[in-house]
Amino acid sequence: MKYLEEPRISMVNNFLATNCINGRIIEGKLEPFSCKKGTSDKKLSKSLEDQYAHELATSPKIECSSVSSSPLGSMSDPSTRRLLINLITTMNASFPDYDFSNLRPDQFQSFSTTAEAVNIANKKLSESVEIEHPGFLGEMWSAIEESIKLEECEIFSYVPDMESDPFSEGNLWSFNFFFHNKNMKKILYMTCLARSVGDDSLEYAEDEYDMYNDGDGPQDGVFEWEDDVNM
């Protein structure tokens, strides 16, 4: 997956990245990716496609029945396999310290409306980032709309396995969304998690937060944007 540099998304990330609020560290990011694959992605895609083809050939009845009603659809459908591979390669690109290559369709969920995903994100962020940066949510969704055209998207979410992924290890809460626009051949991946300030693993994040707020960053909870970013 090719990461796409987008000024408005980058500006949102400056505020979403690290916030220390009410004894919690909030860490989030928005990452636009083109579905056009690079060399390493092509190798993984070929490997996964061969694996899925082998599974279908050796146990077609079991395989088809077990995933036909999954959030992604039946693995006998090439479009479902492409979608699964795109979601996997997106997560691998976003979290290079983890390997999501063995994920299956039933480890994702789909959303029938944009409002479902928006409501989940707004509920969490209104209790955290919005407090520090009033007006953040409106600007965030405006930037997301400009990037991916929400009403044209399929929306999916990875369901944490509570063992070996970045959404489960010591988090108070987390959410993640894939906004997939087929026409644009693009995925906007949104992730956010909250951890306790007392977690030793977050000392660096806290230092980053302190440095930012002791420097030239916005103070007193005022949400500000660079002058050269058109709203």
Account of the 3D structure:
The chain has 231 residues and is α+β, with helices and mostly antiparallel strands. It has one domain: Repressor of RNA polymerase III transcription  Maf1 (Protein Transport Mog1p, Chain A), CATH 3.40.1000. Helices cover 42% and strands 19% of the residues. The chain has helices at residues 7-16, 39-58, 60-67, 78-94, 114-126, 129-132, 136-148, 203-214, and strands at 2-3, 19-21, 24-34, 108-111, 154-158, 173-181, 186-196. Strands 1, 2, 3, 4, 5, 6 and 7 form a 7-stranded antiparallel β-sheet that branches. Helix 1 (7-16) runs antiparallel to helix 7 (136-148). The two termini are 27 Å apart. Mean pLDDT is 82; it is low at 62-67 and 200-231.
Please name the defining characteristics of this protein.
Protein Transport Mog1p, Chain A; alpha+beta; disordered C terminus
